[in-house]
Amino acid sequence: MLLYLRLLSESFSFAINALRNNKLRTLLSLLGVTIGIFSIIAVLAAVDSMDKKIKADLSDMDMNTIYLMNRSFGSSDIPRWKRDQFPPVTYEEYEFIKKSVNGVDKATFNLFARSENIKYESKTVNSIRVKPATDELFDITPVKVESGRLFNAAESNSGTPVIVIGSEVASGLFEGSDPIGKKIRLYGQKFTVIGVLKKQGQGMFGDSSDVAVFFPVNFLRKLYGDNNKTLRPAILIKPEKGIDMDEFKAELSQKLRNYRGVKTGEIDNFFMNVLSGFTDFIDNIIGQMNMIGWIISAFSLLVGGFGIANIMFVSVKERTNLIGIQKALGAKNRFILFQFLFEAVILSLIGGIFGMFLVWIIAFGLSVALDFEFILSASNMLLGSGLAAVIGLISGIIPAITASKLDPVEAIRSGM
User: Fold this and answer.
1) pTM of the predicted model, to two decimals?
2) Do 131 and 258 reside in the same domain of the chain?
3) Where exactly are the transmembrane stretches of this chain (predicted)?
4) DSSP secondary-structure letter at 372?
5) Cβ–Cβ under 8 Å, residues 89 and 69
């Protein structure tokens, strides 16, 4: 054990000397390992951060929540031209589903609308996400209120012009003053602010409630009717807990088909997008991003491996005389082998540490600048260190074998 500790100590000294005596050559050779480890760990950290953020954003929602609409979240076997003919869901269908489908815990009708500008007196906040919906939306996608309240069922049904605003909307329009009871203008109409939401932070899909406003969907239906092409309706359905989802979806599909008059043998002219299926779709994308990152990074690691091998061949050449002396004094072949292997691994680890340090610096900077938490986990750092060690081991094996097989007499003579 002491022998290997001594080998490790000597190899570390040789590696540091290589860096000190041939700074430019060694740094250029280690650059490949640095870039390779940086690429892999940066991709893994970014993907892990995205995955954590997505799951955090969806954590308050039931994964069995169904988005019933005429569009699919993912790919579909139905031709595009046929999907474009599917009729949008309606408010009447929302009411029918609430009354007729068994196992519905909560259901809400909402409209996906384009971003709008909101005004209060002389102040304007641009590109705000508007979310017209029935009051049950807050039971399916919970939000936290900072001050005031959410609109209720009576206001929802009558389409009362009341509005709940996000924290950034409130700060942009009112600059610290109390927004409750104030009148703001949207769609050329006046809305009374009844609530302000707590700050949420940036969402993964740009859907943070901080830059959103919520108001009764019936207000917009009265204003524009139900045939406005710029508004895309959807019915969100939260099934009761413990329900058999296959049976629930089958009943929902059959009753909606009957309501729409879809004949036997014809395909559904609507999509039931289950939120769990959406997360599976996201997981698949994340897996593909990981794979692509590994493939791209592999080329940098290959170049880094060649760089380490180059350093080690030069090191063997420069220390041929020393190797001969060590052998003449009784050093075994494996002593010489392990000495150069340890040196290659240590050099590679130094390059890997630089790469991980760069990831940490960039992740810290982006977290501060973008208000988004980039995660550099301990498992990713261990993976980076392990990869660096493996690269050093593979790159150093041939130079180490070459050094261990040198004839001591010829090796000593070469240094004379």
Assistant:
1) 0.64
2) yes
3) 27-47, 291-314, 335-362, 382-403
4) -
5) yes
